[in-house]
Amino acid sequence: MASFLNSIPKECIGTNGLGVKYAEFSCLHPTLAKTYLPFEKFYDPVSTLTWMQDRPMIPIWACVAYVILIFSGQALMKSRPAWSWRRSLAFWNLGLSLFSWIGAIRTAPQLYYNLVNYPLRDNLCDDPAALYGSGSTGLWVQLFILSKFPELVDTFFIVIHKKPLIFLHWYHHITVLLYCWHSYVTTSPSGLFFVVMNYSVHAVMYGYYFLMAIKCRPKWFNPIFVTFLQLSQMFIGVAVTIVAFYYYNNPILGKTCHIRKENNVAAFVMYGSYFYLFAQFFVGRYFAVKVKGEKKKVA
């Protein structure tokens, strides 16, 4: 990585608060740089990163409060009529979709650039501060992590509208928040893969939810496509963790893999359980028919 920086113009090399040098993506691509705002370029994430590292209980307390609010909210709504906040829900989903589209546009080119210029081992093992965690891409990676807190509001709309709250929904929100926080504060190298996938899937998913909320879903947009994207994300997530395990257990001379074993194990369990649960949801929703009041799978 350091040798590759030697071939980059000096004006495109930044140094973050930890003294780590990195290549500013927007500077390397002048055409794309025109779409970047000044605060994005050469963004230094270290002050927020260290603040998060010093406060490991924040995501845990957030999840505890989330669960308490779910049960108390359901109890409160049990004897009350469902609210009708469809317009607020529509704006909420539109906002998350637009945010995710911007995040995907900002991070996906960096992942492509890294895969083209560095070996896969480097992408899964090297210090992310130099690979993608600093500068404009680092800003959108940091925003991705922090966005897992406001995404909990999704459940608020389910509760007030008295819709069924399935296990997959709240399990997904809790584990994603905990895992993303841990990955960020421990500087997981493989994080960019997951960030790009999640941004991209959420851009489409929340866009679909927005269209459903305003009752304007195009006939050609089959919801099965959204679930297929989610399943694909989980499958790739499992594959990335397996490859990372291989590199971690087979170090090469002079280079160590920056992976934290407990973080990679958590990613494997998390993505594996997501794949199972989403596959179960996929089959139950799209490949089952009701026969005499019971569900029967279609072969």
Automatic annotation (TrEMBL):
Principal EC category = transferase
Keyword list (alphabetical) reads: Fatty acid biosynthesis, Fatty acid metabolism, Lipid biosynthesis, Lipid metabolism, Membrane, Transferase, Transmembrane, Transmembrane helix
Q: Which residues form a coiled coil?
A: none
Task: Provide an example Pfam family for this protein.
Answer: ELO
Q: Where are the transmembrane segments?
A: 58-77, 89-109, 167-185, 191-211, 223-248, 268-288
Quick one: where is this thing mainly located? membrane
The cellular location(s) given in this protein's UniProt record come to: Membrane
How would you describe this protein's topology in the membrane?
A: Multi-pass membrane protein
Q: Which GO terms describe its molecular function?
A: transferase activity
Q: Which reaction does it catalyse?
A: an acyl-CoA + malonyl-CoA + H(+) = a 3-oxoacyl-CoA + CO2 + CoA
A biological-process GO annotation: fatty acid biosynthetic process
Known EC number: 2.3.1.-
- A GO CC annotation given for this chain: membrane
Q: Which family does it belong to?
A: Belongs to the ELO family.
Q: What is this protein called?
A: Elongation of fatty acids protein
